[in-house]
């Protein structure tokens, strides 16, 4: 029964979007975490989504979402000259994360909307299934 | 008039099957709305319905143990959708608004088919009870 597969598909979508929301929360929370060297600085994290190709190529019509992994952004860090900062290195620089807060906010809205859409799809599938179960009853 | 239980429900049982299949395809599109490189898909409804009818028409008759078990597969009529907006750069062609509307429409059509089936079942029930 293909209606049952909808729960798997939209469930995978929901978990993928919650991973995305998780990284966004982590990025925003660490947007101002300064450090005293390039290596220690927090870098923006983003999940990589992929369609599950084995199912897409097979006979099944459903394609769930797969989170391949989480990558760290390669964007340049923000280096600030503030010799009075307690975390400043010997030259007087502090290193700030490469998190773009505006971008992260847009990401957050997009992820939460996508999550809601998947919930609505699962809800509609549930209505269709329960109506089907009541078929022929008076 | 003999009541043939195979034909009693007409086209609606096949329509129900195809619509549930289509709901699955559209749900996949919505779930993959943010997946890079994913192309939006849909069923060719006429083809899928014809396919479902043809296959389930003789699925009941297995008179020999070497006969193939015909499973219903309407997926062969799944096609990629023509995007109505230019590529945003990640190769994804899903328009969530379009897919949502189609999913809701498909869900209503599914319930319409279900309503027709319920009518057929009630008619059969009435005939069996002699209108009592």
How would you characterize the overall build of this protein?
The complex is a heterodimer of chains A (138) and B (132). Chain A has 138 residues and is an alpha+beta fold. Chain A is built from 3 helices and 4 strands; from the N terminus they run H-E-H-E-E-E-H. The longest helix of chain A is centred in the last third of the chain and has 33 residues, at 101-133. Chain A starts with a helix and ends in a 5-residue tail after the last helix. The relative contact order of chain A is 0.22. The model of chain A has no long low-confidence stretch (mean pLDDT 89). By secondary structure, chain B is mainly alpha-helical. Chain B is 51% helix and 5% strand. Chain B is built from 3 helices and 2 strands; from the N terminus they run H-E-H-E-H. Chain B has helices at 12-31, 45-57, 96-129, and strands at residues 41-43, 78-80. The A-B interface holds A 1-3, 5-6, 9-10, 12-13, 16-17, 20, 48-51, 59-65, 110-111, 114, 117-118, 120-121, 124-125, 127-128, 131-132, 135-136, 138 and B 16, 20-21, 23-25, 27-28, 30-38, 41, 43, 73, 75, 78, 96, 100, 103-104, 107, 110-111, 114, 117-118, 121-122, 125.
Helix content of chain A: 40-55%
Percent helix of chain B: 40-55%
Strand ordering within the main sheet of chain A: 1-2
Q: Write down the secondary-structure element order of chain A.
A: HEHEEEH
The number of helices of chain A is: 3
Compute the CA-based radius of gyration of chain B.
Answer: 19 Å
Write the layout of secondary structure elements.
The complex is a heterodimer of chains A (138) and B (132).
Chain A lengths: L1 H28 L15 E7 L1 H5 L7 E8 L5 E4 L11 E4 L4 H33 L5
Antiparallel strand pairs in A: 1-2, 3-4
Helix pairs in contact in A: 1-3
Chain B lengths: L11 H20 L9 E3 L1 H13 L20 E3 L15 H34 L3
Antiparallel strand pairs in B: 1-2
Helix pairs in contact in B: 1-2, 1-3
């Amino acid at each position: 029964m293909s209606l049952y597969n909808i729960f798997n598909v939209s469930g995978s979508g929901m978990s993928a979007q919650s991973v995305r929301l998780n990284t966004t929360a982590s990025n925003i929370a660490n947007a101002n975490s300064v450090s005293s060297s390039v290596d220690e600085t927090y870098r923006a994290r983003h999940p990589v989504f992929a369609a599950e190709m084995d199912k897409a190529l097979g006979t099944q019509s459903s394609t769930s979402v797969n989170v391949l992994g989480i990558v760290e952004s390669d964007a340049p860090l923000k280096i600030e000259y503030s010799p009075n900062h307690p975390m400043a290195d010997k030259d007087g620089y502090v290193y700030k994360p490469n998190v773009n807060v505006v971008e992260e906010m847009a990401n957050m809205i997009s992820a939460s909307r996508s999550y809601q859409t998947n919930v609505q799809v699962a809800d509609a599938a549930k209505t269709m299934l329960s109506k089907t179960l009541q078929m022929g009853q008076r | 008039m003999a009541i043939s239980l195979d034909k009693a429900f007409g086209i609606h049982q096949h329509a129900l099957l195809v619509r549930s299949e289509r709901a699955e395809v559209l749900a996949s599109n919505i779930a993959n709305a943010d997946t890079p490189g994913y192309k939006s898909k849909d069923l060719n409804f006429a083809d899928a319905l014809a396919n479902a009818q043809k296959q389930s028409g003789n699925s009941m008759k297995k008179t020999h143990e070497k006969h193939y078990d015909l499973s219903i597969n309407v997926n062969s009529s799944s096609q990629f959708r023509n995007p109505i907006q230019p590529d945003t750069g990640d190769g994804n062609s899903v328009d969530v608004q379009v897919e949502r509307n189609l999913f809701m429409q498909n869900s209503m059509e599914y319930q319409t088919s279900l309503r027709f089936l319920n009518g057929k079942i009630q008619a059969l029930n009435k005939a069996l009870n002699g209108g009592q």
